[in-house]
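Researcher: I'd like a structural prediction for the single chain below. Treat it as a standalone chain; there are no partners to consider.
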Amino acid sequence: MPFVAPEGPKCGKCGKSVYTAEERVAGGAKWHKFCFKCDLCNKMLDSVNVAEHDGHLYCKVCYGRKHGPKGYGFGMGAGTLSMDMGAQFGNNSTAMSNVPQTGMQY
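Model: Treating it as a single chain, here is the predicted structure.
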């Protein structure tokens, strides 16, 4: 009976065999040292700055851009906030003021 080498784990990016001396582990999969980089910016990753999503590796910055919270003005400071008048809540006034009006019923 001929010798058959055991099948090693496959790299999550290139699909080739990963040997113990060159492996990196993230997201339950093993990766080659040179395949262990961000899918968006190609930055080399390590155990501190890696984030995995659906079998893809990202650095923390790119992961936040692609899979983080979405919305207008989120995290960009007051210069990007909108001046919403609140029409969807029944506010029909044209002048914005933070002074409470007298005679309003709550």
